[in-house]
Amino acid sequence: MTAVRFFVEIGVEEMPSQYVRPILESLTQGISNGLIGSRLYHEPLSSHATPRRLVIWGTVLAQQTPKQTVVKGPLLSVAYDSEGRQTAALEGFCRRVGLDPEKLHDIEDNGKRYLAATISEAMHRANAILPEVLSQAFQALPLPRSMRWGVGDYRFIRPVRWIALWIGEELVPWTLAGVPSQAITYGNRTDHPESLPYKDPDHYWSCLEEGRVILPFETRKQQIVEQGQQLAQKVGGHVDWDSELLEEVSNLVEWPTPFLGSFDEQYLAVPAPVLVTSMKVHQRYFPVYDNRGKLLPAFIGVRNGIGDRLDLVVRGNQKVLRARLADAQYFFNLDRAAPLSDHLPALKQVIFHAKMGSYGEKLERMHHVWHETQGWWDLDPAEAAVADQVIDLYKTDLLTHVVQEFPELEGEMGAIYARLEGESPLIADAIGEQYRPKSPTDSIPATRLGQWLVLMDRLDTLVLAYAAGLKPSGSEDPFALRRAALAVGRVVSEVDASLLRNRTVREMIRKVAHLHQISDSVVDDVYELVVQRLANYLQSEFSSALIQAALRAPQPWNRLRDRIRWMMELTQDEAWTSVAQAFKRAHRVLQTDWGEPLAVELADLRTPVEQNLWLAVKDLESENFSPEAWWNAAKEVAIAIHAVFDQVLVMDPDATVKQRRLSLLRRANQGLGRYFDLSVVE
User: Fold this and answer.
1) Out of 348, 523, 646, 657, which residue is the most buried by the measure of CB atoms under 10 Å away?
2) Does the keyword Cytoplasm apply (predicted)?
């Protein structure tokens, strides 16, 4: 089949930067799916986008591929009567498919003969099909926010201003949102707002350069980085490029022109995070640092358009930033007039949630849990001595002026103020780490006290939220409980030594719940959420079965990845299948509640195979085993379990004998399941 090039541009008012890439990807996929469904697909499509345009091109078939459909009709025996005449059933089928009887053929289905018709669908040319494919893909875009603009029922996040559809060198008639396809485009709004006519898709690319538009996202980003770094070097600095901000700015402009701005050195007395937040979040500037990582009184901004009269642009941006930094300086000085501890009483008036009380009540709950569980935590004496003070101070920065102006700095400002007030570094570091990990790619707190604070805080939130009926559902999670659960799982599983002194996460959740008179059903729900979120997080590295086997074991979760990797190695051992099957054989029997287990001694057992299992289990129960020694003992226990099932009747008519055998199997499985729950592995 002959293939032809096609090219489409949809020009719009400026789209929000965070939607540019998702919309382009969804539209490209929608068009590809439409081409496949229309029998025109030839090869993968190419696409680019700026804030003002979506451009997709590629090669499609000039004409639809053939498609034939076999339609089954009446039984051959029913189509004609005994004298060979056509019956009403045959005539009705011919009318339905639009064919004469002589054009039918017979087929066999389940040993019976039927008449059938082969229907060939018409093969339309691409220029007749593509407009509808494009319109349907555009209207099916999954948009977070949209509204109607202008004529018709179409919805989009911004008005459509111009469109063009080319097949080969032919401009194809097409209308989208009341806008007709035309051989024109528009340049950069600042430098070339007039329309730019072009002859064909090849000519289009040179028109973009004339109109000061860089279509590829990566080229715009590279231009910002290269030119911005050169500008920073002029003041002896460099830019640490924030990937999220860089992507945002690259999708705000069509022709990026970086510029170097500066601010008064007096503002460097304000903590760097405040200045950086003012620049990055409020103004979308890139801060400049010296070679020691210290903030310089300079920034990189990006203009949309060429560099004409750039001096005016720089002065205007510096003026705006100066006002921002003056406000930040004022708020910082205002906060320094009172210590953090002065804000503690007022936290009782700050509502955490209507169903969970105030922040003051949250701190009281955490003090109570800490005092009741001090022996559970593996903190050194210096850390334990300041734990109450950490709880008192870690939320007080919510009432500072800087955090109320810059909520992104919660915790970070608390740590800064604590250091300035002369608090212990242990306290300040823990306060500063309280929101980590902020994302799946963020690291857990580096300090032991910071890890402890994250667990205390998130467990209180999770247990109280679930008790109040605030469970996340579907895509709704307004209180970020899934993120809180993942934080718990990651902190517990990524530390080298158990933070909970060999206590499990479930035990800690139960303790928090019971201290607040909350039911065990909440404990189960919260624990399952933590398991689910951690399992999902680890799925990019390990199989689901291995993750679940490690998480469901009775061991604490510290160094969980190492344990899963070890299990992966064990699965290559020729004895793995025997051990796993032995565990499952016993597990199936033990799922029934057979009553209280008995204490079994070697002398209580009648047969050699039972005695061999008892001896093997005794070895497996050693507390001083290395993992390698445990595995060797586990293999012996597996052999003994198989022998018991093969050679004796576990469910002996004698109730005492039966209970002893079941009790011995329970001990065996407790040993085999020491590191992994083998019931969930293949």
Assistant:
1) 523
2) yes
Tell me the CA end-to-end span of the chain in Å, nearest whole number: 48
In degrees and rounded to multiples of 5, residue 101 shows phi and psi of -55, -35
Q: Is 466 within 8 Å of 522 (Cβ atoms)?
A: yes
Residue with tokens 């009741």: 372
CA distance 519 to 502: 24
What integer is the mean pLDDT of 341-349?
96
How confident is the model over 346-358, as a mean pLDDT? 92
Query: Could you tell me whether strands 179-180 and 53-61 are parallel, antiparallel, or unpaired per DSSP bridges?
Result: unpaired
For 110-138, give one letter per residue: b (16+ CB within 10 A) or e. Answer: eeeebbbbeeeeeeeebbebbbebbbebb
Helix (H, G, I), strand (E, B) or coil at 322: helix
Contacts of 605-608 with CB under 8 Å at 24 or more apart are 605/660, 605/664, 606/657, 607/647, 607/648
Q: What is the pLDDT of residues 369-385, one digit of tens each?
A: 999 999 899 999 999 99
If DSSP codes are grouped into helix, strand and coil, which group holds residue 69? Answer: strand
pLDDT at residue 75 is higher than 70: yes
Is 70 exceeded by the pLDDT of residue 499? yes
User: To which H or E segment does residue 371 belong?
Assistant: helix 359-373
CA-to-CA separations, 664 to 111, 552, 588, 614, 644, in angstroms, rounded: 60, 22, 14, 7, 10
> For residues 160 and 249, what is the distance between their CA atoms, to the nearest angstrom?
22
Strand stretches in 143-285, DSSP E: 147-148, 155-156, 160-167, 170-171, 175-176, 179-180, 184-186, 195-197, 256-262
∠ CA 337-433-564, nearest 5°, is: 175
| SS3 state at 619 | helix
39 Cβ contact list (under 8 Å, min separation 6): 61, 64, 65, 67
Length of the chain, please?
Answer: 682
pLDDT in tens, 126-139: 778 899 999 999 98
Question: Within the chain, what is the greatest distance between any pair of CA atoms?
Answer: 110
| Partners of residue 67 on adjacent β-strands | none
Phi, psi of 554 (to 5 degrees): -75, -5
pLDDT band, very low/low/confident/very high, at 306 (cuts 50, 70, 90): confident
CB burial class (10 A; 0-12, 13-18, 19+) of residue 10? Answer: buried
The helix/strand/coil state of 105 is: strand
Average pLDDT for residues 205-214, to the nearest whole number?
Answer: 93
What span, in angstroms and rounded, lies between the C-alpha atoms of 356 and 460? Answer: 10
C-alpha to C-alpha distances, 74 to 102, 118, 120, 256, 594, nearest whole angstrom: 15, 14, 20, 69, 63
Return the residue matching tokens 């459909």.
69
pLDDT attached to residue 77:
82
Query: Shortest CA distance to 181 belongs to which of 169, 191, 166?
Result: 166
For residue 48, give Cα distances in angstroms to 23, 58, 390, 491, 589: 11, 12, 50, 40, 61
Structure tokens at 498: 């158990």
Tokens 């209970």 sit at which residue? 659
| Angle (deg, nearest 10), helices 243-250 and 217-233 | 120
